[in-house]
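pinging the channel bc i need a second pair of eyes. not urgent but kinda urgent?? the chain im working w is below, pasted from the shared doc
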Amino acid sequence: MSEAEPIPASAPEAAAVLNGTDSNGTEALNATAKFVATPEGTALAYGSLVLMALLPIFFGALRSVTCSKSKELGDNDYDSGFRNSSDMPETITSRDAARFPIIASCTLFGLYLFFKVFSQEYINLLLSVYFFGLGVLALSHTMSPLMSRIFPESFPNKQYQLLFTQGSGESKEEIVNYEFDTKNLVCLLISSVVGVWYLFKKHWIANNLFGLAFALNGVELLHLNNVSTGCILLGGLFVYDVFWVFGTNVMVTVAKSFEAPIKLVFPQDLLEKGLEASNFAMLGLGDIVIPGIFIALLLRFDVSLKKNSRTYFYSSFLAYIFGLGLTIFVMHTFKHAQPALLYLVPACVGFPVIVALFKGELTEMFRYEETSPEEEGAKDDSSEKKDQ
């Protein structure tokens, strides 16, 4: 039987695996309060975390391909609920990627100062309400394609539109234009039930439902415009994660204080206490979404090759499994929180590059480019002007 030491988490944005915490994610107060996990409980917790991490990456990547096609087909031809501009993919450019670690660092340090100055209880109450709203919308969006397949064709699916404008006549400007149907309302109702459950009970299952929805939506809707941008983003966050975990206590302090569904958790004492278990292993959503959007980009690159193969997607997906497994192994061996991106970034970038070198497609990989809807619109306008 191995003892599970209480280990601090690494970050809300890109947290490593956390082992041996109580229900609020805080460390045991003294040695007598330490929880000793059984090998079976530890294996179940780690295995469940790995599985939960893989699901949003795999299905989010698949949905990102359909989401990307929606830009070419138009909103009316897309059948997965993308009828509003807020649901369209957000393209990350190289400039965005270079700025992201700086913005994330400022946000992290800002939260650190907030928790030092203000009461942790009131801050987390505000965060709970904020993430309640985000979680309900994210879970509803995640469920929408599934519900469309479950409901029979005879279901009376009425269409609705929420329109809010400013001004009148030619100066009228749309502020909100949201289209939805009865199936969307059903998804919203179910998601609201989960949201209320999380808001009042903070149960780990409700937390995971929201966390999985956030992760899947992130992988689906955040698109890197090319492989170079992905390398810049992952490289920057690699340094960010290592610095804030090993260089300071800022990330540890924020992660221990931050109560929000920005992590996936699984109890190590599930076999002993059932659903009321309270000693969790956890994985931050940043360790899922950041590599996940790069893996999704490689899947779209596979599709662009039109070779009916998913070589780069599967190689990067297997690399992610290897990197995450290595993170857990090192964390469990040394009993200390690990910056997961330290292991995930080299694996997820290195494996596909080696495959591309072997296949002679490295240049083609780095030339692959995706454009944002705004850039496509600008290109269409310029082409129309040339034709005229």
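so The radius of gyration is 22 Å. and Strands lie at 18-21, 90-92, 159-166, 173-181, 222-224, 263-267, 280-284. — does that match what u expected or am i reading it wrong
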